[in-house]
Amino acid sequence: MAISDRRIEHLLRRAGFGARPAELDTYGAMSISQAVDTLVNYDEIPDDVDGFIGASVLSRRR
Questions:
Q1: How many structural domains are present in the chain?
Q2: Sign of the dihedral defined by the CA atoms of residues 23, 28, 30, 31, in that order
């Protein structure tokens, strides 16, 4: 059962993120339980953001 737009928007606001349109689509296709599990079990989601730190600064210096 997919989550309605209003419910997923509310969930993501309450979780502290807000949401981009793509995130609304992703989470909206999940059940409420799946969406909450994804938000709570964030350590299972790949985190490659550290590789981007300073990348824009370095590209401007070239």
A1: 1
A2: positive
**Full-model pTM:** 0.53
Tokens of 13: 């606001």
Domain with 15 in it? 5-61
10 Å CB burial of residue 28 (0-12, 13-18, 19+) is middle
Pair 38, 30: CB distance under 8 Å: yes
- 16-44 pLDDT tens trace: 767 778 888 888 898 888 888 988 887 77
Residue with tokens 């969930």: 11
